[in-house]
Specification:
This protein has 189 residues and is mainly alpha-helical. It is 74% helix and 3% strand.
């Protein structure tokens, strides 16, 4: 009896559910816990979106007949979400407008996830060699080591630094570490 191996599509679909849950948790949290959960949300989105941008979207662009037309819209949505995260970070979780802006981002991210699932993920599984999706999953598993609580060394100082801080910096750190975990294969910079 053979068991199906999880591939990158399974992982990304699971992350979509995790991200929805994190949004709900941030919305209902208070004070320090809200900040911790927001930090986790930023890190989770950074890992997720970086995997999509550097592995899955290029595959969709290459292998789906309409990929060159549909991928730019997903990338634009991801750029907008990254900017919204930066705006929320600058605003701070205690700001009176934080929750309203977070709700707008939550809705945009949910719509984005639905579009990816329908227009990319399930279609890619139909046209992509399962071995390639499994290889991508191995890269994602390496990126999972970048969990929000995981600390990583700062190259300049040698000190540990978690995936926390301004979203642009978190996304950049994840991109660097994903490239290292992929060994440079198939990761766009």
């Amino acid at each position: 009896m053979t068991t199906a191996r999880q591939d990158v599509i399974d992982t990304l679909l699971g992350q979509h559910q995790q991200i929805k849950l994190l949004f709900a948790q941030v919305e209902s949290a208070t004070r320090e816990h809200k900040q911790e959960l927001f930090t986790e949300l930023v890190a989770t989105l950074a890992v997720h979106e970086t995997v999509e941008q550097h592995l899955v979207h290029p595959l969709a662009e290459r292998d789906l007949p309409d990929g060159p037309k549909l991928v730019p819209a997903r990338l634009a949505e991801e750029d907008e979400a990254r900017q919204a995260l930066s705006d929320l970070y600058a605003r701070g979780v205690a700001d009176a407008g934080f929750d309203a802006q977070l709700a707008v981002l939550r809705d945009a991210v949910a719509a984005h996830a639905e579009a990816e699932e329908e227009l990319e993920f399930l279609r890619l599984r139909e046209v992509t060699d399962p071995a390639e999706l499994a290889r991508m999953e191995a890269v994602v598993q390496a990126a999972q080591l970048l969990a929000p609580s995981a600390a990583h060394p700062d190259v300049a100082t040698g000190e540990s630094r978690p995936l926390a801080g301004p979203p642009d910096e978190v996304f950049d750190r994840v991109r660097e570490l994903l490239a290292q975990s992929a060994g440079g294969s198939g990761v766009r910079s």
